[in-house]
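Example complex used in Figure S2.
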Amino acid sequence: MAGSIYGTLFRVSTWGESHGKGIGVVIDGCPAGLSLDEEDIQRYLDRRKPGQSRFTTARQEGDQVEILSGVFEGKTTGTPIALEVRNTDQRSHDYSNIMDVYRPGHADFTFDQKYGFRDYRGGGRSSGRETIGRVAAGAVAAKLLERLGVRVFAYTSAIGPVSIDRSRMEISKMWENRLYMPDDIAAKEAESYLEDMMARRDSCGGVVECVIEGLPAGVGESVFDKLDAALAKAMMSIGAVKGVEIGDGFEAAVSTGSQNNDSFCIDSAGHPAKRTNHSGGVLGGMSDSSPVVIRAAFKPTPSIAQPQSTVDRSGKEREIEIHGRHDPIIVPRAVVVAEAMAALTAADLLLMSMTSRLDRMEEFFERMRRK
Amino acid sequence: MAGSIYGTLFRVSTWGESHGKGIGVVIDGCPAGLSLDEEDIQRYLDRRKPGQSRFTTARQEGDQVEILSGVFEGKTTGTPIALEVRNTDQRSHDYSNIMDVYRPGHADFTFDQKYGFRDYRGGGRSSGRETIGRVAAGAVAAKLLERLGVRVFAYTSAIGPVSIDRSRMEISKMWENRLYMPDDIAAKEAESYLEDMMARRDSCGGVVECVIEGLPAGVGESVFDKLDAALAKAMMSIGAVKGVEIGDGFEAAVSTGSQNNDSFCIDSAGHPAKRTNHSGGVLGGMSDSSPVVIRAAFKPTPSIAQPQSTVDRSGKEREIEIHGRHDPIIVPRAVVVAEAMAALTAADLLLMSMTSRLDRMEEFFERMRRK
Amino acid sequence: MAGSIYGTLFRVSTWGESHGKGIGVVIDGCPAGLSLDEEDIQRYLDRRKPGQSRFTTARQEGDQVEILSGVFEGKTTGTPIALEVRNTDQRSHDYSNIMDVYRPGHADFTFDQKYGFRDYRGGGRSSGRETIGRVAAGAVAAKLLERLGVRVFAYTSAIGPVSIDRSRMEISKMWENRLYMPDDIAAKEAESYLEDMMARRDSCGGVVECVIEGLPAGVGESVFDKLDAALAKAMMSIGAVKGVEIGDGFEAAVSTGSQNNDSFCIDSAGHPAKRTNHSGGVLGGMSDSSPVVIRAAFKPTPSIAQPQSTVDRSGKEREIEIHGRHDPIIVPRAVVVAEAMAALTAADLLLMSMTSRLDRMEEFFERMRRK
Amino acid sequence: MAGSIYGTLFRVSTWGESHGKGIGVVIDGCPAGLSLDEEDIQRYLDRRKPGQSRFTTARQEGDQVEILSGVFEGKTTGTPIALEVRNTDQRSHDYSNIMDVYRPGHADFTFDQKYGFRDYRGGGRSSGRETIGRVAAGAVAAKLLERLGVRVFAYTSAIGPVSIDRSRMEISKMWENRLYMPDDIAAKEAESYLEDMMARRDSCGGVVECVIEGLPAGVGESVFDKLDAALAKAMMSIGAVKGVEIGDGFEAAVSTGSQNNDSFCIDSAGHPAKRTNHSGGVLGGMSDSSPVVIRAAFKPTPSIAQPQSTVDRSGKEREIEIHGRHDPIIVPRAVVVAEAMAALTAADLLLMSMTSRLDRMEEFFERMRRK
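Predicted assembly (1484 residues):
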């Protein structure tokens, strides 16, 4: 198992390397009848494209998606949806300086150990381009969720030491800056921090926050396949993520029960609700009908233009300098990746939640038979 | 899918509720030939037992494990290993005050929404007793790992605001205090913090740190089934965990590439090694041969002896007071649970790593056929 | 993976050996709200018990099932249902004559090769007693299916060369003879054939036929997880099964398109129906609303009281005689096993079928939210 | 789950419809280091192409495969291998006569019921073209198996009532006739039977036999994931297959224990062997080191040029005539499909068999660490 398949009912199988012929994904398990065209997916892919600002690489990558199967007359058919993005940049580069050397912070060493072998062209499968498959599939999951009343969105909540100020935060503002920060003052500060990083030929990390709204209560399977557990895996599977939090996260560890417990109340519509959301929308591993809030910490881009000590395949210590343009930060382009992973996870568990109660199933099949 | 099955090759299926007849687990996929007796498992279970200190509930739970299958003449047979702990405390309690009321911070509300139904006896499946199945299976995984050169251990790294001091830390010290903190000064401080919490009828959270040593490089499947992603799910699936970190975790988000990248060097044995371990032993989702370091943040125990606002099943706002003895902190008893989940995850991915390279497989089958 | 877990949404995990402490199963994914007690399961287990007639072994096995979890106040809770049957016959037998010898037709040799090791006590996990876990779980699946309008039943269609005559067949007749044949004339003939076998210290095989009625059209997942494919695996996974057919089976291979195609018509209720059922209720791997008909061919019991040539563990040729009472035929006791496997398979795919269409899902979640 | 993913460790995810843009497959879990080029796959695809004889459709389908990922410098990298065949025939046909009508023996009705929707263009996903993905992936599995000492092959053993004569059978002969029958006399007879079918505008079925040689003993997981159970599912998942047998299959049901048991002996190389192979190479669900023999019965092609009674989507009875050229028999083109499914199944279970014994695993990891 190479680990490139995700999900149980809404399953995706991604493929492709940085400098191979293309990148793609097959979605197995999307219900029939969902309107879907290439533009639905392209919108998501465009958000992860490089070259959007001076903090992201200037390479022009087309990343045009093509739907190859599973859609007929504008609607999903229930059979596998194959999505493909052909790589346009397959020119042969000069990799001689990194070919036999393990770049610090990259997967070069571990890939070589695992596979006896390494695709040195731009990282191969460990490249950030791998996420194209996730984002394309996530776009479909998001569209499905929307039809079922669930909305997923993500934004940058911190760039290095610069965090958004929640008192100022407005989600719509994230579209007004290239860092996808929903706080324009923080965004400006972050930009100048990034300029500084670039000047120092260094890189930095940051935090992406993701919100899932509208999940009915009870989504998530108890014990191992809890909603928060599944989301944690989803986020941590994104290259460069080193930490994940739900709700108050690590803050909860220094809180007290009396502060951290969210009291229940009856809302204006007469439904049970919580007065606060320290839990981040999850209780006992199941959605509690408050917004699900998840945060992912990204490490700094490992490719930096400073000399670094390392070793090569033959077991000799070496110094390396990584040339070429590299983003000083991954986070802005990763926002849509986190959103996609949350959408894939939520869709899968939402589908799974349909079979938890016999009364709902009886009704479902009775109605189906009556038609 | 109720979510109680974990793993792909080393699979465990847990069952049981707090006040039912018992708790247990079936392990499917443990290789044949591992020496195993009940004592191997009991040692782990005893570490999660309550009543070990004045900070854990005084209930006397026997929690004696019985091996029902899969072991013959002292060794595993390769077929399913069924482990069972009968509940000794099944007396009928008086649940009338919580039966119809959703306790804040508990899974009562979400269980009821999901299943149309709720086992009010001590939380049923959402009780901490559910972890008995994990720990019993984890003991077997740990024994298997040990035979394959891998060691897993965990300890308390923080209780509320009291963290261990890494300059003072000595792993062996964790056995000298009831909080499993490898720093006796911090342990004392934490004890007095806990006394304070109890006096205020409040509770607190904390952090468990877990280390996996001896994993060969390359364990973990690229893209979705990365080692760190699998560990994140493993930890977050433990009730009360709200955050997970690998290596520097959230600190990495405020670091820079030049600081966060671990330089490679050649160690005294002539093998590639890393000078630092900011990565927490994982690069590109695969073990990099440094120790794997993971941290889990636990929220405060939700059961507190203070009045709390909540709602009941009929949709009325209510006040609730939770009686009975409850741990002011979950963390010390959760240390072995985190260790068990790490062992289960590492064992599963270690088995899976055997099929990544044709050259190793060819050798394997040639040797098998020769015998 | 030891292969003892079955299903995707309705998952069962079986365990236990012939002469260990017990046999059991954990069901993960049974919806909440199903009435269930031990008697529901015992009824099924009693059908596979030996000692029911002079053609089955006289050993008295109690096989009393105990529900250990997942049922509260008489209804399933949605969490794992653990079922257990303790072995009552654990006396030490004398296995010295078979301990080191591979019995022809048994799994002794292959178990030893796979696990380096063999549980010689009554076959261990490869014993027919392994099916207790399947039958217990199947009883739960059958009860669930019944609530959803689906009925599964099985019967003996042939004993050695004696087949039922379909013109005479009456299902209710199967309960009137110990061979579970729905044709009393054939049953009598089969009985005298079996007497003859016993006199010759030989054994014979037979065929079990299983029918699933009431499945809505469209159950089964296209391509690999087809209904018929899943049923074929289910049946072939029963020890001693060597062939499986759906509908006309091998007869279809010698038929012609004009004969084998089932014409559609509109039935008296105004619904599409088929005039014939050569397809056995499956078209394109999905239920077509006709009864699903599956047949499984069982080989003769391998344990026979005649001398047989074989080899031992040390690589020497030997002669073996298998002592003790053994059924001259497996089939009558296997009828309920086939039924159980069909029920488990149908339940799993029925649950899965709920997510095939967006329109049905939209309706489902709208109704859920409204409540 | 749409059911288009197959396998646990060697997993394939197929996609594509008859008249969409293409057909393909992603292989996740092929070990790194296997030499692989497009020609390896094309050879298999060419065997399932139509237009090879006057009994198969004359459509010229190019079916040129392209490797899009997972291969670098001529060897597999351990990451997903994406294979794609673009459809060349996407011309718009006139489907008006079948668009709203359910063809007898086809999946039109069940697809419509399941998905609320039907791709009437050549059957969409239920078309025989779906098998391109299986065959392409099977070619890779076969190459992997070959490197590990395992050989899979298949041939036609019967066309309608014409079976091969085993006393005359020579495998190499199968390449000398277009029906892939390893008996040229039977092949000639079958050809004239087929001519007769065509003259009568009818179709017929047949049987494919598949052999797996060289599997070490012990491959297959006990209880549910037995080798024979997995193969049965593999075969039955091929459209048109209605029956599956291992070894003597249904003949075993009319045999006796004394005839059907295969005696063990010591072969000339000093290894345990079986004197006969009634078991078809499988005992207790595990390979017994004899050749694994499996047979699949195919129903007659449902598309026949005779008028047939059926119903349409609006619930009216109709008569239908299916125009266009259709194979009077599926079997010859299905031989390679059966072979591919056997190879996929054997590869998956062979990989899985590596983790059954601790002693072998200890040796494996010790050798890995030493290097």
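The mean pLDDT of chain B is 93. Chain B touches chain C through 46 residues (CB under 8 Å).
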